[in-house]
């Protein structure tokens, strides 16, 4: 305590609100209003959570069913804004058993040997990974949900001095790697979509997972793979 | 006892102190009442079993609300152009005039530091947490503010000796 404490007390000890009862009544009324608004806000946030949970449920159902195209229950994709402000997350409407067929709708070709890839790290997050042969070339496609802004998420995964960067593509941000277009055996893209899903698409230059030195470059380029990744066909 | 009754008891007990702190921050009775009312409203909205230390919460809310108001205000409070003539320290009303003048010369954060440190004797670390400042910043602000207050008060209250901020 200093003398200033004493000065403060001497100067204010006899100070009191003009009408404490009125002040209290007003405070309670205003406080009740604030509380009600807070409940409404919390309710809206909870509804948002329920909607997100529904999206995850649809994704999970899509994983476990053989239905060709599960009915979309989430909202239609939002218009693609340059800087999306937490858009509602759509649902993935393509089951993991029909990834190849959807791929072929985007990039025509014959699909064979489609199979699911048991990747727990993906499944546990409500996503899936599927592999199939497209025109005899092994393709792997992974869909995983993420939280946050697509651009930030993309740049967060770019290693300093790695030669990687992020570029804006239609509907999201694509991570670019100096190596991904020069790879002899495979080529890939990783796109963080504005709708909150990451699409990872990889194609080998042969039907085997390791590719082959005799296979030449992969038949699809980065623009083709990004076209697959950003296609609206995956989401309802 | 209902939740609202508990709050009313708390508010009645704490209101005088909150009002005094509000007056030291605002330097004006009406604005002090508004600030006290808004603070109590926020405490009411938060009131519940999870509010462990309502008094501390109210104090923090009061100061932060005031700082927030200061940032929003288009015109800032200015020190009086001239001090009232011949303030008499022995009279509390005159003491208030001098004190208000001295405090009005401080920046809002400095004023908040001074009120928290010297009216409520809040520890430096807690003041820092409440205002988002480091303990060192709190100490230096308190020291600087104290020197200013001393300069103003000392002119009119030569018998007053303010000790330096040492904690």
Give the secondary structure arrangement, pairings included.
The complex is a heterodimer of chains A (236) and B (167).
Chain A: H1 3-12, H2 20-64, H3 99-106, E1 111-116, H4 120-123, E2 128-134, E3 137-145, H5 150-156, E4 165-169, E5 172-176, E6 186-193, E7 197-204, H6 222-229
Antiparallel strand pairs in A: 1-2, 2-3, 3-7, 4-5, 5-6, 6-7
Chain B: H1 3-26, H2 29-46, H3 54-72, H4 92-104, H5 108-118, H6 124-131, H7 135-156
Helix pairs in contact in B: 1-2, 1-3, 2-3, 4-7, 5-7, 6-7
Question: What does it look like?
Answer:
The complex is a heterodimer of chains A (236) and B (167). Chain A contains 6 helices and 7 strands; from the N terminus they run αααβαββαββββα. By secondary structure, chain A is an alpha+beta fold. Chain A is elongated. Chain A starts with a helix and ends in a 7-residue tail after the last helix. At the A-B interface, helix 1 and helix 2 of A face helix 1, helix 2, helix 4, helix 5 and helix 7 of B.
Mean pLDDT of chain B: 82
Distance between the termini of chain A: 66 Å
Give the distance, in angstroms, between the N- and C-terminal Cα atoms of chain B.
Answer: 41 Å
Low-confidence stretches of chain B: 74-90
Task: Report the radius of gyration of chain B as a whole number of Å.
Answer: 17 Å
The number of helical elements of chain B comes to 7
| Succession of helices and strands of chain B | HHHHHHH
Radius of gyration of chain A: 27 Å
Which runs of chain A of at least 5 residues are low in confidence (pLDDT < 50)? 66-81
Structural class, from secondary structure content of chain B?
A: mainly alpha
What share of the residues of chain B lie within helices? 55-70%
Q: Which class of secondary structure composition applies to the elements of chain A?
A: alpha+beta
β content of chain A, as a range?
15-25%
Assembly status: heterodimer
The shape of chain A, in one word, is: elongated
